[in-house]
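Support request from a user on the community tier.

User writes: "When I paste my structure tokens into the form, the page sometimes reloads and wipes my input. The last time it worked, I copied everything first. Here is what I submitted, just in case something in the input itself triggers the reload:"
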């Protein structure tokens, strides 16, 4: 069964100027339910993640100041919006949804978080609308319970997964692979285990060719026991922040390449949705829904 973490708090309204991107968190499950791709049985609402698990990844002082809403104005500007208790609660639920997704992925092969992909959050900082790094937190939760596990994090959002790269910089059990816009945010990049920076205007043909060759080699070399996939749709040509040139069908083929590799190699995969900033909300929702549709067709 396709299991999907979703909670109404995911769509918690942000200050003016940030509300539009949040619409997708309501519209994605609504569209999938409307199409009959999923039923309410596929959706689950995560609890808030406990402090102990979060502190496997994030610095204690940073986390305390985050939860007490005492981060400095400069640190809040780096995150991109003023802190509120409800936003912190939202981040904790997203992280728990990704951990729960790991359990479901092991049971069913794949699982989703409608939100997540908060890959700009590092050990002791938040950035780019990210406060807690959901996939890094979930990876460290897996590693705490199974220290010998090998994990591959595949980040295909248009922005480099700088926080994830920093968190696993000195831990070889978590291999970080980021394929992203070379001239895009964050402008100060961290070092992933494998970075593939792409020039502005990179076509879908080139993107898909690089991904197909690289991912198959990585899986053969790393032999991961578990994969995290960040499936941001800001790679679309319509995206106002993306600078790449993928069509909707090419974005769908990107997801197919990842899922096919996971499926044929029998590697569980947890998927968080990441970014998407096309001016037309329909483009964002269609691209994200394609990711769910593909998984449902391939696995179920």
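"...and here is what came back when it finally went through:"
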């Amino acid at each position: 069964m396709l299991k999907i973490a979703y909670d109404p708090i995911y769509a918690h309204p942000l200050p003016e100027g940030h509300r539009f991107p949040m619409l997708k968190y309501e519209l994605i499950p609504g569209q999938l339910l409307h199409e009959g791709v999923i039923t309410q049985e596929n959706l689950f609402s995560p609890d808030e993640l406990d402090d102990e698990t979060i502190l496997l990844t994030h610095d204690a002082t940073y986390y305390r100041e985050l939860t007490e809403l005492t981060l400095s104005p400069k640190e809040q500007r780096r995150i991109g919006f003023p802190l509120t208790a409800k936003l912190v609660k939202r981040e904790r639920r997203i992280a728990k949804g990704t951990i729960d997704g790991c359990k479901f992925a092991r049971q069913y092969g794949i699982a989703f978080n409608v939100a997540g992909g908060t890959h700009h959050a590092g050990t002791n900082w938040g950035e780019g609308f990210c406060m807690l790094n959901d996939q890094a937190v979930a990876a460290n939760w897996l590693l705490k319970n199974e220290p010998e596990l090998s994990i591959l994090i595949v980040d295909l959002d248009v922005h480099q997964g700088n926080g994830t790269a920093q968190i696993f910089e000195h831990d070889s059990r978590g291999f970080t692979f980021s394929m992203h816009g070379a001239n895009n945010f964050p402008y100060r990049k961290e070092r992933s285990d494998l970075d593939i920076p792409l020039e502005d205007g990179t076509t879908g043909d080139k993107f898909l060719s690089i991904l197909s060759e690289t991912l198959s080699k990585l899986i053969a070399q790393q032999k991961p026991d578990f994969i995290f996939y960040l499936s941001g749709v800001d790679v679309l040509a319509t995206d106002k922040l993306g600078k790449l040139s993928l069509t909707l069908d090419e974005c769908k083929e990107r997801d197919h390449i990842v899922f096919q590799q996971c499926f044929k190699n029998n590697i569980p995969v947890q998927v968080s949705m990441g970014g998407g900033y096309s001016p037309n909300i329909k483009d964002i929702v269609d691209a994200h829904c394609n990711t769910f549709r593909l998984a449902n067709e391939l696995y179920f």
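Agent notes: The reload is a front-end session timeout and is unrelated to the input. The chain has one domain: 3-299. DSSP finds eleven helices and eight strands in the chain. Escalated to web team.
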